[in-house]
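Posting here for the record, re: iron/sulfur cluster.
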Amino acid sequence: MSMDRREFLKLAGLTCIGIGVGGAQLLVRSRIASSEYAPAAEGLQANRWAMVIDLRKFRTEEDYDKLIKACHYIHNVPSFPDKYHEVKWLWKEDFEHSFPEQKNRYLPEGIEKKPVLLLCNHCSNAPCVRVCPTKATFKLSNGITAQDYHRCIGCRFCMAACPYGARSFNWVDPRPYIKEVNPEFPTRTPGVVEKCNFCVERLSEGLRPACVEASEGKILFGDLRDEGSEVRRYLAENFSMRRKPELGTEPAVFYIIGGGEEHV
Ligand code: SF4
Ligand code: SF4
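Prediction output follows.
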């Protein structure tokens, strides 16, 4: 289901006056600010936001880690000492687990050992959206898969449905585990699912996603429906892959892995 911000706010308004599923739970959770989806007159606009990650340009651990740090700081993502409680919006994974269908014993060593930067794919045909019983996760008209912490009842159906492991659940209170709280973004509470939001709050302020900015050209972000956009040009000139294309989820995150010259 696609929904623009106006429709979303209407739905959120109904919820706040007590109409809808799980009212008491939602009221408790309404303590979390919902500035992420507030309407903005200004801001970056697209018909279909998409990302292109050029892994050929990632050469050191720092190339990955500084992006993860930027994302996790801005979004108050906690760092739990216990891996079982891990919450992640942007993370790295080995090639084999990122692209299992591409694994074969003859892959160049440089590709096989290359870490891949992972995040929510903001799939056009998102299974997480279809299974959510409270519409806590939904599509914005610009293609972003949004998540409203107020409406999340913690059933974790979306986590089971996502074939990319892009969602995390707050098993315990995450707030004591945030290294440095960013007051500009809401913190979450136990029992809520979260994930990358394509920096929707930054887009509405006219800013590109934090990971894109920190990447210094290694990640591109733009309108997939605009033939003249940088992402379209880059995809036309470089061979790209998406994760698990056979599932038909239509991810909006593209990867340039290797096997050719960089064309900028
Ligand atoms: S990657 Fe997972 S969480 Fe993100 S839109 Fe696709 S199915 Fe949903
Ligand atoms: S787009 Fe924003 S929220 Fe998503 S991984 Fe990048 S910095 Fe994090």
